[in-house]
What we know:
This protein is α+β, with helices and mostly antiparallel strands. The chain folds into three domains: 2-59, Structural Genomics Hypothetical 15.5 Kd Protein In mrcA-pckA Intergenic Region, Chain A (Roll); 78-160 and 274-286, Pseudouridine synthase (2-Layer Sandwich); 164-263, Pseudouridine synthase (2-Layer Sandwich). It has six helices and 16 strands. The strands form four sheets. Strands 6, 7, 8, 9, 10, 13, 14, 15 and 16 form a nine-stranded mixed sheet that branches. The chain has a three-stranded antiparallel sheet with strand order 1-5-3. A two-stranded antiparallel sheet has the order 2-4. A hairpin with a 7-residue loop joins strand 11 and strand 12. It is globular, with a radius of gyration of 20 Å. 37% of the residues are buried. The model has no long low-confidence stretch (mean pLDDT 87).
Amino acid sequence: MEFTYTDNNKKRLDSYLADIKSDMSRSHISKMIKSGDIRVNGAKVKSGYELCPGDLITMEEEEPVETEVVPEDIPLDVVYEDDDVIVINKPKNMVVHPACGHSSGTVVNALLFHCRDSLSGINGELRPGIVHRIDKDTTGLIVACKNDKAHTCLAQQLARHSITRRYIALVHGNIKEDSGTVDIAIGRSDKDRKKMAAGAKNGRHAVTHFKVLERYGAYTLIECRLETGRTHQIRVHMAYIKHPLVGDEVYGIKKDSRMGNGQYLHAKVLGFIHPVSGEYMEFEAPLPKYFLEELDKLRKQNL
Length: 303
C-alpha cells in the first residue's frame, strides 16, 4: 500500500500513521517502521521522521488472516450501501468490534453476515471493514468499507480531519456560552488505564467544537463537531469543562439518576467524499426514541 502525504504542515510519521491506521496500535506501527516495512520515499526512516508535503509513504501490507469472528444474522439499520461503502445507524448497547467480553453480537458480526465476502482487510484481518468506531452506548452513524481502496481513502480523510462528524449530547449543567471549543490532548489515564484523560502525558491532539441547542435549567442539549477522533473524546472533553454527559458511567456524575442507561450521545451526521465517485455524501440519523423521550420530560419540567 502506498499514499502521498498532502498536509501542508509537518507531522511525525508514527503520529500520522496512527491517525490513518485506526485499527493498528502505535507500538505495532513503530515496529513496522523500525523493520523497514514502512518507508518514506523508498528509504528506511525513524518513527520521528517529519513528513513533508509530497512524501510517498509505502507500507508492506500484512497478508490478511481469516478472522475468527462468526457472521451473525443480526438486523442492521442500513442508511446507505453500494459496492464500496455501507453506512449504518448503530443502536444502543451494540459493540462495534469484537473484544474481550464481546465476541458476538457486534457490528462486525452483523456486517460479515450482511456483506458476505465483501469487506476490507486493511487492518490485517480478512473482511473487518471498520474504519472508525463509536462506543457501545453511543447510537448513530458509522461507515464500513467493502474493499481496501475505499478503506484507505476514508482513513486518509479521517487523518486529514475532513470527514464531517456531528453528535448530539445531553450534558449536566447550564452552559452559558452559546458555543465553544475544547482543545486539549487526550491519552490514557495514569490512575486508571481503562479510562482516558484530558491533558494526559503523551496524549494526542484533540479538538471538540460545541454549540448549545437547548437549555433545561440543570441540563443542556448540545451539538458537538469533532475535529479529531480520539477514544471517548466528547465524553472526556465535556467532563473536563465540568459538563459531563448525562448517564455516563465512566466520566459522569455518580449520583446521576439516569445512570445505567448509558451516556446520552448520538452520532447524528456523517459526511465524507466517496472513495470512487469523488462526490461528497452526507447522512443524518434521527435521535433514538429513548433520547427523545428524555428531552420531552426535561422540556415539560422546565415549562
